[in-house]
Specification:
By secondary structure, the chain is α+β, with helices and mostly antiparallel strands. The protein has helices spanning 5-48, 212-221, 264-267, and strands spanning 50-54, 68-73, 78-80, 96-98, 107-111, 129-136, 141-145, 148-151, 154-155, 193-197, 204-206, 226-228, 234-236, 239-240, 243-245, 250-254, 270-271, 275-287, 305-306.
Length: 316
């Protein structure tokens, strides 16, 4: 029986409907798939190659200012897989290797090792990155004499934009609050500090009850138990010990704003393995007084403005 024109039209409408509905579904799937791969690529770039970093404090003034946004080259010193799940502070298995050495004077981004008395960091304190200038490398001896840094007995060239306050704490005067590294020291201060040797892998450190406080946290951070016996003897992993062999390399970090920088003078050595990368260049810079009331430079106009002259400047 022949079908009428109306019946054929109805059939055409019904057969074409799935095709019409199918096309948007295919486009929708393609969008989410593209978004997923784009996110994957972005996470890969951030995890292995380049990461954005914001300067939150004035510890590196005037080399770096509060409100500077810069890119960090994560391949500057080697290759490392992510230590934390991206955008979290959850630790994951990781690996890496170094290809280039950190040099004195480099501006380095590194994971904060903790305050001088902290053996382990809380979950909220993990994956917190600092940016400072490397002053000393493994095996160097650091000393500060009347604000001038000396490395292995020679005066270190000061950064071009470094800030030094007019007042100097005299030698032998304890740091106010006693918050100076290492623990138990009562004669060093930020302006007259040291000398102190930066630990190097395989260094052998004499250890006894006289320097127990200075090395206690350091040895625990390297994964060993340490305590004093009933007669003052030192026990490492429950065995009597008069020396300790260092297992990692360390760096000494300081801010260019020497009188207003929480750095190695206060919290100690930075493990080389904590290095994230080196500062590359500033991609954005702005001054926003409500977000930096204590760090704002009084010489700047005290209202929001963009520092156009700093954008694309290299970090050095």
């Amino acid at each position: 029986m022949a079908k009428t024109l109306e019946e054929l039209r109805k059939e055409g409408a019904s057969t074409s409907e799935p095709k019409k509905n199918g096309k948007p579904k295919k486009k929708k799937d393609g969008f989410w798939r593209s978004l997923f791969f784009a996110a994957l690529i972005a996470i890969g770039i951030r995890s292995f190659f380049i990461e954005a970093f914001r300067i939150p404090t004035g510890s590196m003034k005037n080399s770096l200012l509060v409100g500077d946004y810069l890119f960090v080259n994560k391949l500057a010193y080697g290759f490392k897989s992510p230590k934390y799940l991206p955008f979290t502070n959850w630790k994951i298995p990781h690996f890496g290797f170094n290809t280039f050495d950190v040099k004195r004077g480099d501006v380095v981004v590194f994971e904060f090792p903790g305050n001088k008395e902290q053996v382990t960091l809380s979950k909220d304190e993990r994956n917190v990155n600092y940016i400072k200038r490397c002053i000393g490398t493994p095996g160097d001896t650091i000393e500060v004499r009347n604000k001038q840094v000396y490395v292995n007995g020679a005066a270190m060239k000061n950064p071009e934009m470094m800030i030094l306050g007019p007042d100097t704490m005299p030698k032998g005067h304890p740091e106010p609050g006693g918050n100076i590294f290492p623990a138990g020291n009562h004669t060093w201060n930020r302006d007259n500090y040291g000398p102190i040797r930066i630990p190097k892998k395989d260094d052998v450190i004499p250890i006894d009850q006289n320097n127990y406080d200075a090395w206690n946290v350091f040895i625990q951070r390297e994964g060993h138990g340490i305590k004093q016996g009933d007669h003052g003897e030192v026990l490492i992993d429950n065995k009597p010990a008069k020396t300790y062999t260092v297992e990692r390399d360390y760096l000494w970090m300081m801010g260019d704003n020497r009188d207003n920088s929480l750095d190695s003078r206060y919290w100690g050595f930075a493990p080389l393995e904590n290095v994230v990368g080196s500062g590359l260049f500033i991609y954005w810079s702005m001054f926003n007084p409500p977000y930096a009331p204590a760090e704002g430079d009084p010489d700047e106009v005290q209202k929001f403005h963009i520092r156009w002259e700093r954008i694309l400047n290299g970090v050095h």
